[in-house]
Design a protein that fits this description.
The chain is of the alpha/beta class and 303 residues long. It has one domain (10-262). Helix content is 27%, strand content 18%. The protein is built from 9 helices and 12 strands. It has helices spanning 29-34, 37-40, 43-48, 89-101, 114-122, 126-140, 171-182, 203-206, 236-248; strands at residues 10-12, 15-16, 56-57, 73-76, 106-111, 162-167, 188-193, 220-224, 234-235, 252-257, 262-268, 273-278. The protein has a 7-stranded parallel sheet with strand order 1-4-5-6-7-8-10. The protein starts with 9 loop residues before the first strand and ends in a 25-residue tail after the last strand.
Length: 303
């Protein structure tokens, strides 16, 4: 589905449904959207509307990326968490098989459950299961008769066209989730610092010389304040700090939006006082880059 998310081109939802696990989930856009009249006309969203951890595998969406000829950046499972505990390994195998075959695309996976991601992608037999499914089920069940096991021979995990990321809305989430992401085999690792709910220090995970830490570091960070009904404030200085940390470590950074309630801190030299006030922006999500402070007009992608 074509999307307005500025850091991707398409969303692909072979899975829908989720449940809340942390502060960043409070105003989940996917939960709200799943209850909308627009999506309730589809049976899969009727099944998961309570957002209680029920996950629906949407088989008729599985092969969709194979029909896109032009190269796209594809956000995988924007209406779910692909590594939720209730997602079956067989579903993951099928999704990863399609991503392997659709090598013209870049797939962006974002999870709040990186421990499961690490476990799945580190398991020695995962690649074998994916290859077996390609050789058998894709040929017979899905009618891709021109496909055989040799198609997968050139692929290895990590898949070069799959970026793996985790959401970090506060310091607690950063410190609990980033280590699992760093231990996961990946071609590109990224963070989504959205909704950004407080100042976060991530520099130690970003720095390019990480031999002493035993991991390769983070390649990309997306930063954004919260939008939508009930949006919580996001201080411009929190965003600025993350941009500066990324730039110091030569990490690509993408400022998506300032949020619906962007807060600016003013300092008055005369009496050394500070005050906070909300910026008044025309864009209701604070997503118009022309309204950003000049030093935050940064939208980079990893190499």
């Amino acid at each position: 589905m074509t999307t307005n998310i500025s850091w991707t081109d398409e969303t692909w939802n072979p899975l829908v449904g989720c449940s809340k696990i942390s502060a960043g989930c409070k105003n989940c856009y996917a939960e709200s959207a799943s209850k909308s009249a627009r999506l309730q006309q589809f049976s899969q969203y009727q099944t998961v509307k309570d957002w209680d951890g029920t996950i629906e595998f949407v088989e008729n969406q599985l092969l969709k990326p194979l029909s896109w000829k032009a190269s796209k950046k594809v956000f995988v499972c924007s209406m779910s968490d692909i590594f939720h505990a209730n997602v079956e390994d067989e579903w993951l195998d099928k999704i990863f098989a399609v991503m392997a075959i659709a090598s013209q695309h870049t797939f962006q996976i974002l999870t709040k459950r990186p421990e499961r991601m690490q476990e799945y992608l580190s398991y020695p037999k995962t690649l074998q299961r994916i290859g077996t499914w390609i050789a058998a089920d894709l040929k017979s069940h899905y009618g891709l008769v021109g496909l055989n096991h040799s198609v997968f021979d050139k692929f290895r995990l990590p898949l070069p066209n799959v970026w793996l990321g985790t959401s970090v809305e506060n310091q607690k989430a950063a410190d609990s989730r980033i280590p699992s992401l760093l231990m996961t085999p990946a071609s590109v690792r990224f963070l989504s610092c959205e909704p950004l709910l407080e100042a976060i220090k991530i520099e130690d995970y970003l720095r390019p010389d990480t031999e002493e830490l035993g991991h390769p570091g983070i390649d990309w960070a997306i930063v954004g304040g919260e939008s939508g009904t009930g949006a919580r404030p996001c201080h411009i200085d929190w965003i600025r700090s993350l941009v500066q940390q990324c730039q110091k470590t030569e990490t690509a950074v993408f400022v998506k939006q300032l949020g619906a309630v962007p807060i600016k801190t003013e300092t008055y030299i005369v009496d050394v006082a500070t005050t906070n006030h909300q910026l008044k922006l025309k864009d209701r999500k604070g997503g118009n880059i022309l309204e950003f402070p000049e030093d935050l007009r940064v939208r980079e992608f990893p190499d």
